[in-house]
Design brief:
The protein has 186 residues and is α+β, with helices and mostly antiparallel strands. The protein contains six helices and six strands; from the N terminus they run βαββββαααααβ. The protein has one domain: endopeptidase domain like (from Nostoc punctiforme) (endopeptidase fold (from Nostoc punctiforme), Alpha-Beta Complex). A six-stranded antiparallel beta sheet has the order 4-3-2-1-5-6. Helix 1 packs parallel to helix 3 (109-120). The longest helix has 13 residues, at 137-149.
Length: 186
């Protein structure tokens, strides 16, 4: 598997999907298998989303909104996608806008809502009771995409309903919009 120093040149706004192996990551994947996802082509694999802030620096929601070195994921299985057609200034604008939430709390309460959604195979609980001021990782990426670009990161899907797996499923099935950059998942 490539080490962070051997990753291709990553650009601001690149979407990084992570296959985590912690108990928490496995629980997220377990929940995701029951959620509606018209883009899914297999069992859920991704449990975390981070966004490239600058080369070798990620912005992510883990406990809090934070910047993290890409090297934290050098032993993890990751996939990276890049939106086609964006200028460098647009990529930077998206990544910089995400810092508005710097050090905000992670949406831990949403994990309970995700579990309820999974048990009932719906997004009803997150849509009705979602706390919008605290976001989980994939919601964070989708929220700021909507704020900066005015459209949904995942087509026809509200940012409150975007899970890590849904985001990667959508992106990987839209080669007209997204460029595959790296697959270090094997």
């Amino acid at each position: 598997m490539p080490k962070a120093t051997h990753f291709p040149r990553l650009l601001p706004g690149d979407q990084v999907g992570v296959i985590g192996e912690s108990r928490f990551s496995k629980a997220i994947r377990w929940c995701e298998q029951f959620l509606p996802d018209k883009w899914r082509r297999g069992p859920p694999r991704f449990s975390h989303i981070a966004v490239v802030y600058r080369p070798h620096i990620l912005i992510e929601a883990v406990g809090r909104i934070r910047l993290a070195p890409l090297s934290e994921y050098e032993n993890s299985r990751v996939v990276v996608y890049r939106r086609k057609g964006l200028e460098d200034w647009q990529r930077k604008m998206y990544a910089d806008a995400m810092l508005e939430d710097w050090d905000q709390r992670y949406g831990w309460g949403k994990i309970v809502l995700l579990l309820l959604d999974a048990l009932f195979g719906t997004y009803w609980f997150t849509q009705r009771f979602g706390v919008t001021s605290y976001r989980v990782c994939s919601e964070y990426a989708a929220y700021w995409w909507k704020q900066v670009f005015g459209d949904d990161l995942v087509e026809d899907t509200d940012w409150k309903d975007v899970s890590p797996q849904l985001e990667i499923d959508y992106i990987s099935n839209r080669p007209d919009l997204w460029e595959f950059v790296l697959d270090a998942t094997t």
